[in-house]
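#lab-general

N.A. 3:47 PM
ok so I finally got the sequence cleaned up, no stray characters, all 451 residues accounted for. can someone with queue access submit it? mine expired

B.Y. 3:52 PM
send it over

N.A. 3:53 PM
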Amino acid sequence: MAFESLTDKLQGVFKQLRSKGRLTESDVHDAMKEVKMALLEADVNFKTVKNFIYQVEQKAIGEDVMNGLNPAQTVIKIVHDELIELMGSETTEIPLNSGGMTVIMMAGLQGSGKTTTAAKLAGKLKSRGKRPLLVACDVYRPGAIKQLETNGAKVGVPVFTMGDRKNPVDIAKAAISHAEENSYNVVLIDTAGRLQIDDDMMKELKNIKKEIRVDYTVLVVDAMTGQEAVNVAKTFTYKVGIDGIILTKCDGDTRGGAALSVKSSTGKPLLYIGMGEKLEDLEQFYPERMADRILGMGDVMTLIEKAQAAMDETKAAEMEKKFRKASFGFDDYLTSMEQMKKMGGIESILSMLPGVGSKASEISDMVDEKQMKRTEAIILSMTPEERSNPDLLNVSRKKRIASGAGVDISEVNRLVKQFEQARKMMKQMPGMGRGGRRGGAGLFRGMKLPF
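B.Y. 4:20 PM
back already:
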């Protein structure tokens, strides 16, 4: 998971601070040495680390902190606040022209995920009521145009293309005319990448910006490349000019150096982070939430937003009503499993809970993913009537279901038994069986799910 290694190290440092009670300047210096090493091992830019540690120490050894009632907690808060400052303090949105068209140019090296990110961003803009148009200007990489068309179709955004035999500058100019004629108000230009920075690529990007009005240039960089991502961002800033950055593959970056370095190194805001391969796995970047994640404090707000996106209010109300009456069926289990997948899976959900953080992967390993798939197969082998009314499940029906799911009948019996226990438990919970209300968290407390 993202920042797993860094989070573990920082939590170890802070645990030592808390154990001391009162702190001396020497305690703070020693702790900051360990924080410095943790950041450098996370591949954070050296100059960025040096400035960060200096700022924290200056504030942490002040008289108010050292003589306070809980100096360790105060030092941790200072680190938290400085992390937020380091990553940009405020959340930055791509500014869209209210009265006309906004042209966004996507740039980056080959393999950074630029084409997929362009489609993800277009999908987000469409969900906000905009009319985006994707433009295929990568005429060099085999399959680039097809990839953009495929991803564009997935998010319901059209793609303007003139094939791979035209000059990218001409394609961009024609796309602007097409957008104006068809009332598209956001144009996203997917430009060509290279395996490494070269003059031809930079010249082509500058020519596009020279021939058409580009309102915002977004650089897409791979978080997994660590310090190299910062070097790429610096070069693009100097040679082409960029306005904002999107970091991809952050879900696999256990170090986090790029996320902590790009803003301070380039002066450009971090706009979004890619947290998975799915088209919906592009998260708005919130410096405060990221600081919380890094320090193992969870990210409850993002978790809530994911939950809201995974299930509409009508379905949520229906499910709550069923649980309060203990009248839920196996279809409701399938719905819950589908929600979990949409929210990024068990590990993603756990990582956003306070106090779990880097232990998320360890805990999620205890959940058998294969068992979840078998549970799904068993439920899908039931008839609609059996899923809605589990009391119908006699021995012969269970045998048929086991055969259809390709499992032993004992697994069907186990699932049915767990289901009956869960329903019985819900009836016994205060207020539940009589239709009384409980908070959302209390709704599932103590309930043993079959996956």
